[in-house]
Amino acid sequence: MIQNENNEGEYLIRIENSLVRDEFIDINDQNFEKMMFLYNSALKEIKTKIEILQDELKIFSDYEPIEYITTRIKKPETILEKLKRKNLALTYGNMFQEVNDIAGIRLVCNFKKDVYKLVEIIEDFQDVRILNRKDYMKKPKKSGYMSYHLILEVPVNFSSGIMYVKVEMQLRTLAMDFWASLEHKLKYKNSNITKAESNNLIKYAKVINNIDESILTISNRLEKEKNENILIETAESRNENQTKKKIFFKL
Ligand code: 0O2
Predict the structure, then answer these.
(1) If you count Cβ atoms within 10 Å of the first and of the last residue's Cβ in the chain, which end, N or C, has fewer?
(2) How far apart are CA 242 and CA 251, in angstroms?
């Protein structure tokens, strides 16, 4: 790695080596801007990887598990709020090490099985590291929230070398996304909601989950039928070829 005092890379290595670890965050200073540059770069990298995967699955396997992708960078005020919520000093070191979702990418899928298939594929990415995972689909949060979360470390090539930057990936179905987006607006960050309204939101999450399960059953049946038809067609064409061969030998 180039160790040049004046280049950006040296600054990045400094963050890694914790030279600015104890500095307090100032959302208007250059250090903050540089931190955001790191997260934005990682987000571009992972988004491109997922888009390439999406194209590959479509072209080679006629499989389109992702309905849409969204990305976002956490607002500066929300980063500070999160550090306070975790009772941590508002330093760059804590921001870099303890806040995992400054860069966020969301993959919204059609079916639950697509989420697990994508997780398996991402696990096989050679360069992306998985630091942590939470399966809120198998075990929803008390609020009713369902999603699959991966904390990734994404490699970004800078002039001074490679740096691994954390990105939170949320994978969920369309139905889960519908619920989570509305609940986020109505309740997640709003303490004015009543107990009854809160209970209703939990109830709706269960309804959403039932819908997801029923839709999955339909999709599984159709897939099974399609595979069976392929098998029948293959067997038929094999028989046809054998008949042709017999006719050929008779001639
Ligand atoms: P925002 O405004 O969406 O960014 P940890 O990462 O383990 O230190 P954290 O961040 O609480 O702790 O982990 P968790 O539970 O995996 O939550 C991460 C993100 O998931 C949240 O980010 C939300 O985006 C989403 N989330 C978690 N619980 C709920 C929920 O009950 N309802 C909704 N709608 N979203 C939820 P932030 O930073 O809390 O919020």
Answers:
(1) C
(2) 14
Taking the centre of ligand 1 as the mean of its atom positions, its distance from the CA of residue 28, in whole angstroms, is 25
pLDDT of residue 3: 33
**Calpha distance 186→37 (Å, rounded):** 31
Q: How far apart are CA 57 and CA 62, in angstroms?
A: 6
Between CA 177 and CA 11 the distance in angstroms is: 38
Q: Does domain 8-176 have CATH number 3.30.460.10?
A: yes
Separation between Cα atoms, residue 39 and residue 35, nearest integer Å: 7
Binding site membership of 198 for ligand 1 (Cβ less than 6 Å): no
Whats the size of the chain, residue-wise? Answer: 251
Q: Is the CB of 187 under 6 A from ligand 1?
A: no
Q: What are the beta bridge partners of residue 104?
A: 72, 168
Instruction: Write down the pTM of the prediction.
Output: 0.86
Residue 2: pLDDT over 60: no
Residue pair 124/146 in contact by the 8 Å Cβ criterion: no
Q: Which residue has the tokens 């770069």?
A: 41
Tell me whether residue 243 is exposed, middle or buried, using C-beta atoms within 10 angstroms of its C-beta: 0 to 12, 13 to 18, 19 or more: exposed
pLDDT score of 227 = 84
For atom 4 of ligand 1, the residue with the nearest CA is 74
C-alpha–C-alpha distance, residues 73 and 71, integer Å: 7
The domain ranges of the chain are: 8-176
Q: pLDDT tens digits, residue range 109-163?
A: 999 999 999 999 999 999 999 999 999 999 999 999 999 999 999 999 988 788 8
Cα–Cα dist 150/130, whole Å: 7
Beta bridge mates, 68: 108
Most ligand 1 atoms within 8 A of CB, residue of 75, 80, 184 to mutate: 184
